[in-house]
Structure formats: C-alpha cells, structure tokens
Design goal:
The protein is an all-alpha fold. The chain is built from four helices and no strands. It has helices at about 5-15, 20-35, 50-55, 65.
C-alpha cells in the first residue's frame, strides 16, 4: 500500500461523518495534518459546512469564521 493510498483511506474516514465536498474534505484533511506539526494554526474559512466540520474534529477555528 502506497502512502497516497493510506492518505486517501484516512480522508474517507475523516469525511464519512460530515460529508463535505471532495475539495473541502481535502483542504480540511491537510489542515488537520498541519495542525499536528504547527500547533498555533487556526482555520479561516467562510464556508459554513467546513467550519462546522472543523469544530466537530476539535480543530482551532478563527473567531471571524464563527461570526459569519
């Protein structure tokens, strides 16, 4: 199994409960991976579904996202 195949499996699992569009799921997956290396990151998005999914995963969301 290649690393890309493993990542796709992780992405499917991550997206299973929230059902984001493929591009949004990919962005959230990458953000999730980055947070483990760069701890002070906050997601800044104006896509309500992505913000909700990020919050469900316990990811830091910038306050401007919650206000919109």
């Amino acid at each position: 199994m290649t690393p890309q195949t493993k990542d796709m499996g992780k992405l499917r699992i991550l997206n299973r409960g929230v059902g984001l569009r493929a591009a949004d799921a990919g962005h959230l997956f990458m953000f999730h991976a980055l947070v483990h290396s760069l701890f002070d990151l906050e997601l800044l998005s104006f896509d309500r579904e992505m913000v909700t999914a990020a919050q469900q995963f316990g990811l830091a969301v910038h306050p401007a996202c919650i206000q919109s």
